[in-house]
Design brief:
Length: 150
């Protein structure tokens, strides 16, 4: 997926009209994606990073895409990318990502995952937090994953 396609999606969903951390959500998402690209993260992680909070999260409550549109975005983005975005939106992050044990913060349901998903979510969370000038020192597993990526 090309950058212009991601920007087009962000424009269509109104991400550049929603405030986030002193700028627009669209700017935050693009900056997060760029940080992941600079670390040579895989394309699926970069794209998921570019859309990581479009469904809202346990911290950022302003969803710009409703869960009812998940099927549409699975076909646009690839199901694996959309799944990363969805997981990012429903877990108690950053603590679940740090611990590698996911719980749906709305329902309390345990979500089973694997090391590959945990790794990808740790990279996304690291870029998300760093883009907002947050320290990763409280999250040694997330920090370690970020630092291991060249």
């Amino acid at each position: 997926m090309q950058l212009n396609e991601i920007i087009q999606i962000l424009e269509q969903i109104g991400a550049f009209k929603v405030n986030h951390s002193g700028r627009t959500l669209g700017d935050h998402l693009l900056n997060t994606m760029e940080m992941l690209y600079r670390k040579n993260a895989s394309e699926d992680i970069c794209i998921a990073g570019a859309l990581h909070s479009v469904y809202g999260t346990n911290v950022f409550k302003n969803n710009v895409i409703d869960y009812s549109a998940r099927e549409q975005y699975k076909s646009i983005l690839a199901e694996s990318v959309e799944n990363l975005i969805y997981l990012f939106s429903i877990i108690n992050r950053p603590y679940d990502i740090e611990n590698g044990i996911f719980t749906n913060f709305r329902t309390g349901e345990i979500i089973h995952s694997n090391e590959q998903i945990i790794y990808k979510l740790r990279l996304m969370e690291a870029a998300n937090l760093l883009e907002q000038k947050c320290s990763l020192l409280r999250f040694p597993n997330i920090l370690k994953t970020w630092n291991e990526l060249k």
